[in-house]
Amino acid sequence: MERKLLTKDETTVALEQLNGWQVEGVSLKRRFKFVDFAEALGFVNRVGILAEELDHHPDTTFGWGYAEILTTTHDRGGITQFDTELAARIDAIAD
Questions:
Q1: Is the pTM of this model over 0.90?
Q2: d(CA 61, CA 73)
Q3: Which of 26, 52, 54, 90 has minimal CB crowding within 10 Å?
Q4: In whole numbers, what is the pLDDT of the chain averaged over residues?
């Protein structure tokens, strides 16, 4: 997978394939809703395992009934294919 920054058009096309993600600054962001804290924590743990497998680690915030994921490629200063791939894989474990 390439680590080149995606253009605005490439990012727009990638977002069409993702569920609920949006661009925030130089990152992709999605907020997930859950029935309670335990379900949100379980999801965050699954995201953590996935992030370790891909060696691409998003910023994660969670609390009672929600988790928020923010992913960017820090060494490139923006969104790359690593971020869109991670977002797609997170969608797969969320839905």
A1: yes
A2: 18
A3: 52
A4: 96
